[in-house]
Write a structure and sequence with these properties.
- This protein is an alpha/beta fold and about 220 residues long.
- About 45% of the residues lie in helices and about 20% in strands.
- The chain contains eight helices and seven strands.
- A seven-stranded mixed sheet has the order 3-2-1-4-5-7-6, with helices on both faces.
- A hairpin with a 5-residue loop joins strand 6 and strand 7.
- It is globular, with a radius of gyration of 18 Å.
- The mean pLDDT is about 95.
Length: about 220
């Protein structure tokens, strides 16, 4: 009987992993995204997965986003997905401390057919830049940056979002470490605190999506 349960559990786990892999690749990416993703690998960066990108595009479209803040530009993969979900006149404000990466993102946006006036690049440390942005002026905030500063990003995001705006944190699972209490590294501990803070906040309606490495999302309540 125990052997049967182990076999059945392994089959369920295998089926679940196959289902997740299928879901993540469900929406195909075009050449511009494939090239931007290749640049991420060359730079040693981990871009959002196709499934996570599709989720970001859907969320940006669902909230009819006109103004979006992205914390962590990378090489433009997530930015392209966000811009394609936003309104045609929407503007993405993307923040990163590395100017070379932002230049690669500019190139990716051009290849994707994004008009130059639809992206505002700000080079600098996020916690220096975000306080200068307008209170309640944004429809969506997406964070894919230093996990050790995630709680500070949460505070800034709550200030920046309008009521009904959407908050997204990429990499909530930390490749499984944040879900395992045996891992006591600083990043895992910060992410656990972030998940609890988002889940328990009366100002947020949260969901944790199992896309790739975990996409923690919430709607800012009125």
């Amino acid at each position: 009987m125990q052997g049967e349960h182990r076999t059945r559990g392994a089959a369920i786990t295998g089926n679940r992993q196959a289902s997740w892999a299928f879901a993540d690749a469900f929406v195909a990416e075009d050449d511009a995204l494939i090239r931007a993703r290749a640049r991420s690998r060359t730079e040693g960066l981990r871009a959002v997965s196709p499934g996570t990108g599709a989720a970001l595009r859907l969320l940006a479209g669902a909230c009819d986003a006109k103004s979006v803040v992205e914390i962590g530009t990378g090489t433009g993969v997530s930015g392209i997905h966000l811009l394609r979900g936003m309104r045609p006149d929407g503007v993405l404000t993307t923040v990163d401390s590395e100017p070379d990466r932002q230049q690669l993102a500019r190139e990716a946006y051009r290849e994707a057919g994004v008009a130059a006036n639809r992206a505002r690049f700000i080079c600098g440390r996020a916690l220096d830049v975000l306080p200068r942005l307008t209170d309640g002026g944004y429809d969506l905030v997406f964070c894919d940056a230093d996990r050790l500063e995630c709680l500070d990003y949460l505070d800034e995001s709550l200030r920046l979002l309008r009521p009904g705006g959407v908050l997204c944190f990429e990499g909530a699972f930390a490749q499984g470490r944040a879900l395992d209490a045996a891992h006591q590294d600083a990043e895992s501990l910060h992410l656990r605190d972030l998940m609890r803070a988002v889940r328990d906040s009366p100002r947020l309606a949260p969901v944790l999506l199992p896309t790739d490495d975990g996409l923690l999302c919430a709607i800012r309540r009125a």
